[in-house]
Each structure stands twice: as structure tokens, then as C-alpha cells.
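Hey everyone, long-time lurker, first post.

I ran two proteins through the pipeline my lab uses and got sequence/structure pairs for each. Pasting them in order. The first:
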Amino acid sequence: MDQEGAMAQEDPMDEMRVLSATAILGYGFPDESFEAGLARGPHVIAADAGSSDPGPYYLGAGESFTDRMAVKRDLERMIAAGRRLGIPVVIGSAGGAGAAPHLTWLRDIVEEIATERALRLRVAVIPADIDHDTVLRALQAGRISAVPHGPELTAEDVRASVHLVAQMGTAPLVAALRNGADVVLAGRAYDPAVFAALPLLHGFDEGLALHMSKILECAAIAALPGSGSDCMLGTLRRDHFVLEPLNPARRCTPTSVAAHTLYEKSDPSRLPGPGGYLDLSDCVFTPEDDGRSVRVSGSRHVAQPFAVKLEGARLRGYRTVSVAGARDPLFIREVDAIVQGVRERVADNFPDIPADSYDLLVRVYGADGCMGTLEPSPQAAGHEVGIVIEAVADSQDLADTLCGFARSTMLHFGYPGRLSTAGNLAFPYSPSDFHAGAVYEWSVYHLMETDDPLALFPITYLDHIDHIDHPDQPGYADHPARTGDLS
């Protein structure tokens, strides 16, 4: 057993049920599915609240990519259910990107829920922010490495980062649950960690717990038909686990579960994470007799020196965007030459602006708008194309200038066979140009070795609500993390 598994307490229980409410907190879930999950007697309710998939903006800006009202709706139902059943609720990657402003944002929502519902909660808050000096010392000591195909990290990259977080593993979450937290709010976290923490606390196999949790993190996406806004139940036993969708309209199959095991992974048998990797080379997926559930066995965790993934974002500039469409077949035929001509006209008109100080991007949807240079068939084949003109520069004013000039140039650009001189583009909006505001880019996306999976992630406990005089909620004194009795 590795560093995190070694913390598990002795426990004779043979089964643990983990309720995944939704793929990302704020994506929602049907009441009927959630109640069906509660009826199965789960030992913990968990949800991942974030991802790096939406890009670096949310980390850099300190904003959530999920809506506050939607997050509160999900979280209120989860916390109320947790108090009703006397079980913990665990949330990871708070506020989307998991930095200090995101964690504060989510903590405020929990405090609001506790006040409105007169709930007495012990809340564990686990920040994931890493100070720049810690990273710089690790960089100097040779303890930071690039992710596959990524660039080497520089001190300049670190210093330029507006927010810098480390992706915690299960250890801080296990510690918070051991200390009786009713609600755990974690900053940036390894996605499966929130689901695996309680099973590891009670001594379940790390390979099975992490594999089950890797699938549960996306809730019912592993079912048919898949959905990120529906519930899934994972039942972990000593030598296997079972995945079951809680909506009768969905079912899991060996293919759907095995396929989701490979989701976002480049190696079918080795799934890396903090402190090691999952070896799935001997994994077996078997349909259960009910025709809706799948049993999984053979997952194995292989320990390695512990490392956390670092994520940092820096300000790149400011963006202005113009959206247009075109359906003249001659324009579409000449669109590559037109785009190149527009670029040259912008550079010619603003010779005093260095070319490397701004980005002028033109995406042609219907040709290569999604994949850009990776598109295998870049020629537009339809009767119309959508065009997005984007300028990124050091100031919003300069971005406005460049985008506006590029848009007006393309609107009246001449090309062979052109019949109408009134304009080449159709604009769905007035004004045609939009301020998109600050633009952030990844500055740090690297691995940092650490000797202690807990040291980087201090835990604060908040007891709510001191100013309301009422008895503890039913089941509070019998919290499973306090008693160790989850049978």
C-alpha cells in the first residue's frame, strides 16, 4: 500500500456505496435519480466541481465557469441529503479552477445554504494554491518536469502566473473525513479523489477505488444514453465494484464503462495520477444480471514517487471578436486568399505596430474552424461559411482597432468574379464587434515532486452556525467518519 493507502484505518466493512450526483457541480441532476440514489443508502455524496477543459481564463480571472444559481441548487440538495442521512458531502476543484477566489466563492455558497436552512455543519476547506517561491525552489532543485509533449518550465513562467494551483490527491480529503467533516470543499483536486477518499479511509483497495472513482467523476456519462447531468451509483466491494445508473432510462454496458475508462487518456492500460498509476491490463468488465449494471474487477494501483500537477495562468492581452457569415460561392472558393489578403492589409496599414505584439485570428467554420491546421479537409464544401475574426493585443483599444479594421477590410475585399460591392459578409449582430475582455494563457502545466501528499494542502475547519441556537441535525452525532461504522 502506498503513501495515501497507508492512512486507511482498519475496517471490517465489505461494501461502500458512493453517490455521484452530477458530472460537474452546477450541471444539475433529476430529483428522481437523486432520490433513487439516496434510497440505496450511500455512504458519501460527491461531485467534481471543475476542470481545465474550459481553458486558462477561469483560473487566471478567478471566475467560475458554472453559474452560481445552478451550483447552489445542486449543492443545497446534496448537503440537505447528507445531513438527512448523516453522511459527508465531498466537493473537489471548487469553483471550476480551484484557486483561492474559487474556493471562497463556493464556501460563501455553503455558508448561505447553512444559514438559510439552519444547518450545523463542520466544513473542511482545503486550498490548493501554491506560492511562487515554493515552485521556484522546486524548479531550481530539479523537481519539476514537463507533461508529455509540453515545454520546460522557466522561472519567468512561474512569476507571470496570476494564480498557481497544485492538483491534490486523496490524502487531504481522507484527513478531512477522518476529522469528522460533514462537508469537504477542496481547491484544485485530482478528479477521482473526491469519490475515492472515504473508501480509502476505510481500507478499500486503492486500485479498485480509484478506477471506480475515475468513472464516477463524470456521473452518468458512462451510461447509455450518456448524460453529464444525471446520477450514478458506485458500489465498491473488496474484489470488484459495480456501476449503476439511477435513471431507469439509462443503462451501463461493458462497452460503455470500458470506453469511459479510456476517456481523456492516451494509454489504454496505464492511467496516471498523483502517487502512481492505475494498471488496467487485467481489468474485466462483466454485465450484471439486471442488464443495467456492470461489474469491474482486476484494477491495480502501482505506486510511484508522489508528484502533483501544477496549473498556472498568466494574462496574455485583451480580445475583440467579430462574427459574420458568407454564402457567395465565389467568396467561399477564394476564402483562403481573402483571409491572407486581409492579414497583409492590416500589417500594411499599421506598420508601427510590431507583428509579434498582437494576434489576428480568422476562423472559417465550414472549412477548418474547429481543427485549424490539423484539419485533414480544409476546403469549404458547403453553401455557406461562418467567419470569426479575433484580435488579441496588449490593450482593449488596440484589439478594437485591429479587429474593426480587419472586419471592414474583409467586408469590402475584392476577389475574382465578385458581383456585389455592397459587402461580402452578413453580420448577425449590431454592433458587429464585441469586447471579449482579458485573455489568459497557460503559463504552468507541469509536474512537481513532493515528499508529503499532505504538506502542500493545509486544512481549515469551520463550524456552522454559531449564532443559531438549535440542536444538531438528526444523524450528526453518528456521522460515519466519526464512528467508522458504515455497514
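...and the second, right after it:
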Amino acid sequence: MNTSVIINELKFKAVRSSGAGGQHVNKVSSKIELSFDVMASMGLTDDEKLVLTQKLDSRLTKSGILLLQCGESRSQHRNKELVIKRFLDMLKTGLRIPKKRKPTKPSRAAIRKRLDNKQKQALKKANRRKPPL
């Protein structure tokens, strides 16, 4: 994954944002919409494109474009920084290969400790009962 190439391929669009700002909100386009065409990217290998299209399937449009929005800040520049950061984090997590789980067994001491604790609990509960007549 070549981040500098990918950042150059991003397309931004400024849109009017809702939220804090009062009357100012109606005049300024501070919300940023980021769009990224996964399949047409030159910064990703074919394998990476395949993995991303599978993992980010719910976030992609029918034409394979990833859309992200950010309207948290009142500043357009700050929103642009935030959406780029969020986008790069999403790519990194999408391309991360999870470790294989090594199956393990609890130690004998752990098993013994659990059973002893279980026995103590059972005795505690049994001692609360009324004695038989």
C-alpha cells in the first residue's frame, strides 16, 4: 500500500453541514465527503484491492467507490484532516491479516482451582438450607 499515491487519488467534496454553528451553518460548506475508487487505485496491489472489496463490502457503493464523510468540526480543513486519518485507518485495518489462534488447554492447577472454588460455593449454599427434621 503506497499512502502518498493513494492520498493523491482521493476526491473531496465540500457540503453544507448540520450541527453547531447557528446561522453560519447555512452559509458555509464545512462538511467533507471523501470518495475513493478502490479498483482504479494505482497505490494498491491487485491482492490488496481484492481483500479490501471483500472486507469493506458494506461500505462500498455498487460501482466500488468508498465514501466517507466528516462534519465534526466547524473548520473545513480540520474535517479534511479527520476524514483522511479515518480513511487511512480503515485501509490499514482492512488489510491487516489476523493472527491464527493457537488452541490451548487450561493448566492442571487452573482446573483444580476452579473445581475447588466450585465445591466451596456448593458447600456455602448447602449450609444456608434448613436442616432436615
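Reply from user beta_strand_b:
Welcome! Quick read of the second one: Strands lie at 11-15, 31-37, 65-70. The longest strand covers residues 31-37.
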